[in-house]
Design brief:
This is Transporter. With 350 residues, the protein is an all-alpha fold. The protein is 84% helix and 0% strand. It contains 16 helices and no strands. The radius of gyration is 19 Å and the shape is globular.
Amino acid sequence: MKKSLQIGGAYVGIIVGAGFASGQEIVLYFTSYGFHGIYGALIATFGFALVGMCIAQISSRLRTTSHKDLIYQISGNAVGLVMDYLLSLFLFGVAVIMFAGAGATFQQMFGLPVWLGSICMIVLTIATVMMNVKSIINIIAIATPYLLTIVSIIAVYSLATMDLTFVEQAVIAQQAQVSSKSWWVTALLYMSFNIGVCFSLLTVMCGSIRNEKVAGMGGIIGGILLGALILLINLSLLAKMNVIVGIDIPMLALANEIHPLVGLLMSISLLGMIYNTAVGMFYSFLVRFLKPSKPSFKVAAVFIGGLSFLASLAGFTTLVAKLYAVMGYVGFILVVLIIFAWLRGIRRIA
């Protein structure tokens, strides 16, 4: 059970980046749909648990060391090649976005230059990916209970100090809606997008687990925890929709409303989530091309870290951000392939 909890915690830690923890993504994909957003959160929870279990069990069975080991087996050579390189590009792009986001957060919190904050996060990330995969799982998993605690405090406060009824807040939420898609389509795309984000590291983590049931339970636990976080943040924001409309970091605004100390703890949590996602993406990108045991792995980590820094300064993040919408659909194809492979009982090719 301990190993399953570690996998579940790491699964959450990979997905919960700055956008998730800040509340921005939750407003866009769930809260802006009013009460339908709650139903969407339940659909996403089921999807995260089911697909997480499937990825974990298949990866454990196939002993995967990178997403390449799995993607070609479940999709064939032609589709696998396209998916492989799309995922690799996406891993690098999200890592760059996290480094740039860290720079902006350090500037806002401490008044430091953006480039200095980015370098600090890159150095910390490089140092972490040079550890073994078990150490990386443990580090990423640590932040999950901390975030759950902070979010729970904010949720209780929001519900206890509501100015309007949920019906009135839902009307305000729907007026702020920017997507024309149905609530259930948006929920499915959000789930599949994030599966695309976590797929690579989840295959690496669970490929080192020899017990399929332990790995699968980790996927289920992670999915349920993700759903709990989505629901808690969604309810917190819906309860205070009249306050947080138009605010870039709504959860931080609510935290500061409680007390500046809670706001500071939330800021630290945001940095922790940025770090988790950066480590997950950076490590997954590197192991796609190099084995961690090779001396060239550390050299490549430093070199790619330097390229990431340059990319973040050059505005590369804007270009990569455009991949997010595409990744939702790519992730959906990935989800379908994973579920079919699991149902087929795919086995390791000797």
